[in-house]
Amino acid sequence: MRTRRVLRAAAAAGVVGIALATGASAHTVAPASPHWLGLDYGLDLRVHYPINNPTYRCNAYNGNSQTGWCNNVAQEAGNYWTTSSDWKPIRIEPTGTIAVLADNYGNSGWYGATNFSYSTTTGHMSGVYIQLNPSLLNNPHPGSGGVGDTTLQKRCVAAHEWGHAAGLRHHVSTTGSIMYEPGDGTGHGWTCHTQGMTGAQLHDRVDVNEVHQEPS
Amino acid sequence: MKSLTVAVAAAALCSMTACASAQGQAAGQPDVLTHTHAPAATGAGDDDLARTADGRVIVVQEAHYAHSVATEEQLFDRSGEVALAQAATVRYLKTPTGLAYTLQTFVVRESFVGGASPGSHITLQFPGGELDRTRATGPADPKGYFVIDSSWPTFAPDAEYLLFLEETPTVDVHSEGARVAVSQGVGAYQVSGRRLVPPPSLRDHPVAKALQGRDYQEVGRAAAERRRVR
Prior knowledge:
The complex is a heterodimer. In chain A, 30% of the residues lie in helices and 12% in strands. By secondary structure, chain A is of the alpha/beta class. Chain A has a four-stranded mixed sheet with strand order 1-2-4-3. The radius of gyration of chain A is 17 Å and the shape is globular. Chain B is of the alpha+beta class. In chain B, 22% of the residues lie in helices and 30% in strands. Chain B has helices spanning 2-26, 72-77, 206-211, 216-229; strands at 57-65, 79-94, 100-113, 121-131, 145-149, 160-166, 188-192, 195-197. In chain B, strand 2 (79-94) and strand 3 form a beta hairpin. The longest helix of chain B has 25 residues, at 2-26. The N and C termini of chain B lie far apart (55 Å). Classes of the chains: A alpha/beta, B alpha+beta. Strand 3 (110-118) of chain A pairs antiparallel with strand 1 (57-65) of chain B, so a sheet runs across the interface.
């Protein structure tokens, strides 16, 4: 626990925690992380789906199969969140669903999106699907330098969305996070192009482990 | 503690649902967003999912958007229309690729940029809305799904909003004449007692933080002045 706190302090210096609730029970812990996605919905801090057993589906985009995305991009991006020994997800139940899709969503305005449903009884996220948008990623877009994303840059987007699936929200000021998005849409250019991130960073690992702490 | 968590969740939903409930009624739509509790869960796999009044599963969308703005000057520069407008009717549709979106109609009350006449109508397109039971993936739900994009305010019927609408849409527009807001929900603020109120999910956004609590006319006039000197 101490190590985790030290890591968090190092990774999140200057970030002020937000607590919605006090005390703890079998179902609820105080949100220790200001980056918990569920704060706006009063949700508990844990996901409730088999994050280690996602399903992948990639539909055709302009007649080109997106299977490679799923096999080589989305899955690799998800490997950390699903298999890493230094991530400590708890209370992951085999009852929900998690899926990753890539499809032709048109110019929706987003590179990727994460959709989750949640339980009003447990306050847990209980089902998630991640959408990746090759319509935007395969073509020039803000921060891409006038070209479409490379495979590794798409993997970066997938890793960002996986972070949402693990319960994290955007960071507006933490540049060393795969979840960095200062609000002006430049987060993708910074994390995926300038920094070349392809997966979770130290800050994200600390965040997600804190989110998934076992209640005391 | 568990009840507190649920109560907080319910309160958060109430703030969304009370508005959207009446919103649906105003449009002759079913009362889609009134929050109800399904029968209590009885065991593993019997999850009490948050649902709308007509039974749709509530799905929250957290999207990684492009084409955003970081300063109010950028917001003003991209706004072809800035107006105080009153929420009226709402419709839920789907894009050709199956994404839910909403068309919210407003009555213009006061225009600062763009010259819309008071009493005229503006239709705003934004992501989120009804999906049927055959969602993109996962188990089909007999009542379907309702998608709420976290970056958008809930539009309450008859409530007033200061809207910043894009001069040139940066996203696909699916209905003729519909407008889109600059930088998604960063371009739409409820006006309460003349003050701008951004949605809670934008509390960290630099523009939303800068505009929060400011007088709508002061902001609208600043946008007009910015446009004038350009």
